[in-house]
Amino acid sequence: MRIRRILAAVSATAALAGLGLAGAATAATAATAQGAPVVGPHQCEDGGGTPRIDLPGNPCVGGKYDGQSVD
Q1: Using an 8 Å Cβ cutoff, are 43 and 65 in contact?
Q2: At residue 22, what are phi and psi to the nearest 5 degrees?
Q3: SS3 39
Q4: Which segments of 1-71 does DSSP mark as H helices, in order?
Q5: Half-sphere exposure of residue 65: CA atoms within 13 angstroms, side-chain side
Q6: What is the pTM of this model?
């Protein structure tokens, strides 16, 4: 009986540790992929800018989102 409780505790600890590692990997991936924020063309225009998809990096030029990539 005592061994079952110990095994259950070890199993639960291992499962939680695995979830913690998966969460840390997801957060690291999100931080790496995040980089510069991306805005939509309408969001760029609503912020007073002009989406310039003809330029390298597709920037929003001017306004609130100046320099951010347009998706």
Answers
A1: yes
A2: -65, -40
A3: strand
A4: 2-34, 41-46
A5: 24
A6: 0.49
Q: Which residue has the tokens 């510069």?
A: 36
Dihedral Cα 57, 62, 66, 68, nearest 10 deg: -30
Average per-residue pLDDT in the chain?
76
Looking up tokens 């609503």 gives 46
**Angle at Cα 67 formed by Cα 56 and Cα 25, nearest 5°?**
90
If 0-12 CB within 10 Å is exposed, 13-18 middle and 19+ buried, where does residue 65 land?
Answer: buried
CB 60 within 8 A of CB 70: yes
**Residues 20-53 pLDDT 10s:** 545 544 444 444 455 668 999 999 999 999 999 8
DSSP state letter for 37: -
Q: For residue 70, list its beta bridge partners.
A: 39
